[in-house]
Amino acid sequence: MQDPEPPPARGLVHLDHAATSRPKAPGVAAAVARWYAEVGVGPDRGDGALVAEARRVVDAARQRVGRLCGRSADRIAFTSGATESLHLLFTALLRDGDRVVTTATEHSSVARPLARHRDSGAGTVDIVPCDPHGRVDPGDVERALRAAPTRLLAINHASNVTGAVQDAAALLALARAHGALSLLDASQTAGVLPLDQLDPDALVASAHKSLLGPPGLGFLALRDGLEPPPPKPGGSGSSRALERHPHRMPASFEAGTPNTPAIYGLDAALGWLQGDARRPPLAEQLARLDAFVDESRAAVAGLRVLHPPRGTVRLPVVSLVLPDLDPAEVGALLDLAGVHVRTGHHCAPWIHQHLGTQSGGTVRVSPGPFVTAAELSRAAAALAP
User: Fold this and answer.
1) Nearest Cα to Cα of residue 129 among 90, 159, 103
2) How far is the CA of 43 from the CAs of 209, 239, 264, in angstroms?
3) Are 203 and 174 in contact (CB under 8 A)?
4) Is the four-CA dihedral 283, 317, 65, 21 of positive or negative sign?
């Protein structure tokens, strides 16, 4: 097993890929800079050669995202990130009295809007538990769906705390069987696991994680025939003087001036990922993380590791709990050693009661594809007392 060929030097060891990838894919920075230096306009805002150039790149990025999700380009809407995508979908899809089934592994961008839906009296929310590894039992989801009519099943494809990957195909099939709409949050899995055969009613993801693109950009993909009302009326690129916001995708979800430079960056990242990308396969990334876990266990007596068993479907994400040390203290010590990790609760408010980590959360280690075995060994050594 060979280490990946890294991009140019990037300083400290970055082990917080689950929050934001660093470094980005080759060509991303140049693509963003090109928009600022040579283009400087958005698509569908007037005419002329520069607008046509911006439209060409945005259309290409839409096509690439569509291939990723198994959707046609006109079913892809760009947003400011997965958080906005989710908020827009909940606003568009949920009505007074609606029941939502979701899971304990969800990110705050799902948990908080649904908590507001519940706490305001607008509807009910049932949260399906997970096991101590962060995995959800499809049988528990089926029982929840069977208990009462359900408008929406909202599921996290993979936990950003433990790396556990849910059986999305089985869960989405259960939603269809019980007449519920389905929403898949693929923020952690887009760019790592195949998504094009899963076929949820709605899929969301962000550009800045494993897609290796810029921050401030995400997308949502809707299935054909699902046309919810525009959740955020505003400006659009339509040349017609319309009093009402367009009701067809993608314009129905794209109010306001788009983040065109970030779309340029995402197009470059997807071009690299869907082309001749030189990065190790997932199995090699997991092997490096497993070696890190073994070295860390040898260095720290009583270390608690929160991660699905080896041999199961999982992401290169692991949470650690060190005896007698608060996660924030561990993070500070690692930072002094030039190792960047994430500490705390990781914007996942429900999962920690199932992991027993409610008080201080965990130390999360999530190496990206460019992190080498030597860098992970350095991180493990830095954990030693």
Assistant:
1) 103
2) 25, 12, 11
3) no
4) negative
